[in-house]
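tool_call: predict_structure(chain=1)
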Amino acid sequence: IASEEAMARDRLRRRQLEAVIGAFDQGVLVVDEYGIMTQANRYALDALHLSAEAVVGRPLQDVLTGTGLYDALGSGTEIKHHRTRLKQHSGETVDAICNAYPVAIDGKTLGAVLTFQHLDDVSKLTYEIWEHENRTTSFDDIIGDSQPMLSVKEFAAKIASGNSTVLLRGESGTGKGLMARAIHRESKRRDGPFVVVNCSAIPDTLLESELFGYEEGAFTGARKKGKLGRFELANRGTLFLDEIGDMPLHLQGKLLRALEDRMIEPVGSVESRPIDVRIIGATNRDLDAMVESREFRKDLFYRLNVVPIWMPPLRERQEDIPMLARFFLDKHCRTAGRRMAALSDAALRCMLAYEWPGNVRELSNSVEYAVNIESESTVRATSLPQRVRVAKRSDGPNEAGGPQGLEALERTAIVEALQRFQGEPRAKEKAARELGIHVTTLYRKLAKYDLA
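tool_result:
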């Protein structure tokens, strides 16, 4: 009876161990001291396209390429984050990140446990962590109903579902990063990673290894077992190359090869690896002039400039300023724990008169400044940064200290739009489109200003 109870306990422990191994969200392979596989969980079987019966009793080398990991296991060495390739039943290989833990009794190695994750799953995990910290952006999150902004959003939505390289161009602070995220969200790669590289923020000496990764011992200070690059982390997703115009000339050729061949070569490696990423580039620099001066490769420019999108500066979509200012007022009040009902007409006149060389980013910073120093429930012009308070537009009569309020400005814009399309078919629809508002909104404003 005691023997039967012991056997029952052993069976229970074995079932429990199998349940634990099966619950892992990564592959698990157990080998004995001779390197023969004795156990595998469902993740491993699915990754290798094998049944449990086909795995048990086979040498580990049947599914593991190379000898580095196998030799290390033989010596009883623990291994972490080792890049390797596993062989599937069909003969194809899959890239994986492996860990190995020797099993030893009294100093004698009696086997090992290998865990691994498919490289795509590692990339997906990186994306999910990013998603947790950074909410995805849709086209609806990009604020602006002006005609220039509506045209850009409409065009971007049209090309989002494709796989072509996109180049976002425009001044600093115009929202190129938001647009890149919105394109990714509306693309077929929305469930894949969205990985960002700021080409101007990473030192030239590190940018190559950040983009393409590196092998162990590639350079002094290199991490043991190497490091995955942003290209591989973005596999089956989108790689956003911000400030692409600042990429060093000596790296542009390697980037060109990655775009043309869909292959990368990590630093210190002689082996090329396939990639499946969509590239979105962004720059505020004049790439055409840089090509002429040979600061930027012409062939790379053409490869990046497949679908160019120009982001309009804020001064060319002035009618979006009140909406944006209100959004930033709410946002910064929440952050600062303040309550402010509105922006005064005088403050809005100052904002409409200012040229905004820093575009939407500068507008956000100016509203944040006002929220911090305003003592009343309405933001007054005196609370705005001095450069905004004293501004006078050079292209129109609406100066900061002028007599026209925001409603007068709006009424004038509506009258001018109606006059432009007077006598034409569907004149009000055309006027509404030019004003960047819906035609029903136009009718409400016509009634409001006695223009019906």
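agent: The domain at 316-404 is CATH 1.10.8.60 (Helicase, Ruva Protein; domain 3). Proceeding to next step.
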